[in-house]
């Protein structure tokens, strides 16, 4: 099972959790008080850069019948779409720049270069995903209702296509995100009452949303595959394929960045237990434990919309993204103080782990080594119980350093390694005896 008691899992007391919340609130206040002209210049310069990049890409595609210009135009346009979606659209629609009261970059008016309607995305992403982050059965981003990314989701025969479905989602990510909202019923509130998850919404509302999605998608398709190719005259067909390639580049990159922030090992999943009574400190803690970063320099961070700092983004989704790097130092220090893991790694490693989990969970549980309690992609507080009892927060008597979840991970790792070697030994011995069936508890 996923984590049902965050305090227990993290080896923290209620006072610890609330102290973490208070420290993060203090960071928020400091950053908000520092916002000013430098930040305004940053977002306006980013918009100017993105528009210039798009203009260059579309101008180059006038000569797209030549192979070199086709590749240059497709790559430049793809890069422009990445910047618009990741660093501008995503962050503007989070309300990161609303403090400026500038209608050009206000979350209420921005419509991004994507087939999904901005209003739909804001409801699905800003509310459901960020409020119920990684809660199985409430956050539709846990597998996008298509993929099995945790053993808490029971295996179904369709999951055998996990890798294939993820490849499709990766290539058509804007369509997957755009259509994701259309079946949304999770977390809906009507007349002050929270509706049960997956309870059907009324037909008129479904029809309204379908109409809005259809209007936006048709407009986007006409722009990319009719209007702009037509402006290049005889290069219509080559420009059309270049535009499709630019969208593919953007889709694959956006999918990779977002998956690296939510599905590598260490990005925990949670149950619905106690969510209704969750405090601000517990919410902060869930964001810290349920998100993952990847190491990035200035360029890679910019192209990811600074979602290389996914942990910081989930803690402060409406703080301007250009502050995440400085916030990161303080969040890491907070994790060290309370002995909490800070999940990060190279981009290649985090992306590999997401695909590994997706491939692994295409199989029924009986073919997997770990259990639902101690799988690397989904942990549980039961993993660290001592003789069936909750692990108490302790302090090293010599150093005075707190012992918490990070220490527990380190202590448990040798045990898991020994267990893994034992399993591999059993499998090897079983393989040497072809007539002997493989024991279920040592199945891979």
From TrEMBL:
Ranges of residues in domain Fatty acid desaturase: 70-344
Residue ranges that the Swiss-Prot or TrEMBL entry lists as coiled coil: none
A GO molecular-function annotation: oxidoreductase activity, acting on paired donors, with oxidation of a pair of donors resulting in the reduction of molecular oxygen to two molecules of water
One Pfam family it belongs to: FA_desaturase
Any one Gene Ontology BP term: lipid biosynthetic process
Entry GO terms, CC: membrane
Domain of life (superkingdom): Bacteria
PANTHER family found in the cross-reference section: DELTA(5) FATTY ACID DESATURASE C-RELATED, FATTY ACID DESATURASE 2
Protein name, entry field: Fatty acid desaturase domain-containing protein
Organism: Segniliparus rugosus (strain ATCC BAA-974 / DSM 45345 / CCUG 50838 / CIP 108380 / JCM 13579 / CDC 945)
Organism classification: Bacteria, Bacillati, Actinomycetota, Actinomycetes, Mycobacteriales
